[in-house]
Amino acid sequence: MRKLKGFSFLLLCLVMVLTACGGGNSGSTNNTPTPTPANVTEETPDPTEELEEVPNLNGRVIKIAAWWDLTPQGETQSEINRLEKIAEVEKKYNVEIEFVTVPYEEVVPNLTNSILSGEPFVDIVQLEYDAALPLIKQGLILPISEFTDSTNNINNEGNLVEKYPPIAGEYYAFESPNSLGAGVHYNRDLFKQLGLPDPKELYANGEWTWDKFLEIAKQATRDTDNDGKTDVYGFSTWGLDAYRQFAASNGVRIADEENLVEELSSAGSIETGEFLNKLYNVDKVVKIGTGDPMEWNEYNTFKDGDVAMFTTAEWNLKDLSFDFGIVPIPAGPNQLPNYTYADYLRNAKFISKGVKDAALVYKIYEETLDIPMLEEFSGQEYLESIYGFEDDVDMLRNHISGTGLIILDKAFPDFPLWPFVNDIIVNKVSPAAAAETYKAQAEASMQMLNK
């Protein structure tokens, strides 16, 4: 277990090497002709090579929208290179690339209305998967196969852009590669103080299961100052996240968008509910900071430093007072091969129906990403800015990233996940009874998407 020294030294070394060698695609253009010595014969161009005719888009503005600013800020060498590449591509095709920031709640209405009017308001749009599904069902989003071919990077190396997981059985989403994913984070300081077993060793030995997770959570939940009150807890998170993560680690899709089948009432879901009941109501190992386990702010309860294990997104891990680590969500009894966590916050880029010259728009976007690779792997700088230990970065890259089970319950109107989980955790209703209560509503909700 080694602490990381940061990305800056590696970046500096790579920049020095690239500068010294003068090689690689720097994203900048040098128009100064190089003199040819008299005793050197210039290489004759191969007449069989066809020169690709570059389309002139006559100043067209290509708009790329998200609910945050996608514009490279030029604060890192990679961002500087991207800005230079964008300028180069703009000149090459006689286009302007504009990054548009749209309030989150306005993205889908603006996109839908503009597509239906025949003029999409942007050419490429960032969408969450659950927001994209209804648009896909209406035929308003183009599959990747309609705007790429065998020459595109996405269909070859995929090192610039990769296909994101399919929706309803087909690929629509694309994005730059990364090494992100969800897992169980643990407070390294507390694990050391309490003498708890190393989760990474348990995972490596194939012992990281629900039962082992509960065992450690029970060991961690204790009254350390003997005042009669629990002051250290085994686990904390938002109730809905707890259900989604453990359901996914038990092979439950919750709402199967391809076959339009609800899985709240499945055997795996009922098992998941029973496990949650143990955590919250039987063994009482969960700290509830707000007083309501279904309150989203339970996502932040771990920050008090008195919780051994927790689930949260990586962006929520900055400026903590303790060291932390990450392992996959523990395996449930029916875990699916290759899936460890619930990927229910997935977002990516899409191209909608009606975008003019969609294939060319995509090609131009892909070209703006063709810059020197200054990292050992995509997303290294970002990951190392959050995770301070080498074994955590390795765990994310090699054991968590790419193992998300797409969960799209939020795509279906009035899908009753919240009341189902609330009944189990708060109202202490048996999972089987809760599933029976909400099964019909879940089925009706999923069928509404077909109307």
Short key terms for the protein model shown above:
single chain; 451 residues; D-Maltodextrin-Binding Protein, domain 2; four-stranded mixed sheet; 14 helices; 35% helix; globular
Explain what the structure shows.
The chain is of the alpha/beta class. The chain folds into 2 domains: 56-177 and 346-374, Periplasmic binding protein-like II (D-Maltodextrin-Binding Protein, domain 2, 3-Layer(aba) Sandwich), CATH 3.40.190.10; 184-344 and 388-448, Periplasmic binding protein-like II (D-Maltodextrin-Binding Protein, domain 2), CATH 3.40.190. Helices cover 35% and strands 12% of the residues. The chain has 14 helices and 14 strands. It has helices spanning 8-21, 77-93, 104-116, 129-137, 188-194, 199-204, 210-220, 239-248, 267-282, 358-368, 380-386, 390-400, 417-425, 431-448, and strands spanning 60-66, 95-101, 124-128, 162-163, 174-175, 184-187, 233-236, 255-256, 261-262, 307-310, 324-327, 341-343, 347-350, 404-406. The chain has a 4-stranded mixed beta sheet. It has a 4-stranded mixed beta sheet with strand order 7-10-6-11. A hairpin with a 4-residue loop joins β8 and β9 (261-262). α8 crosses α9 (267-282) and α13 runs antiparallel to α14 (431-448). The chain is globular, with a radius of gyration of 25 Å. It starts with 7 loop residues before the first helix and ends with a helix. Mean pLDDT is 89; it is low at 7-50.
- What gross morphology would you assign? globular
Name the helix and strand elements from N-terminus to C-terminus, one letter apiece: HEHEHEHEEEHHHEHEEHEEEEHHHEHH
Strand order in the largest sheet: 2-1-3-13
**In percent, how helical is the residue content?**
25-40%
Mean pLDDT over the full residue set: 89
Number of domains: 2
User: What value does the Rg take, in angstroms?
Assistant: 25 Å
Distance between the termini: 54 Å
Task: Summarize the biggest pleated sheet.
Answer: 4 strands, mixed
Shape-level CATH architecture of the largest domain: 3-Layer(aba) Sandwich
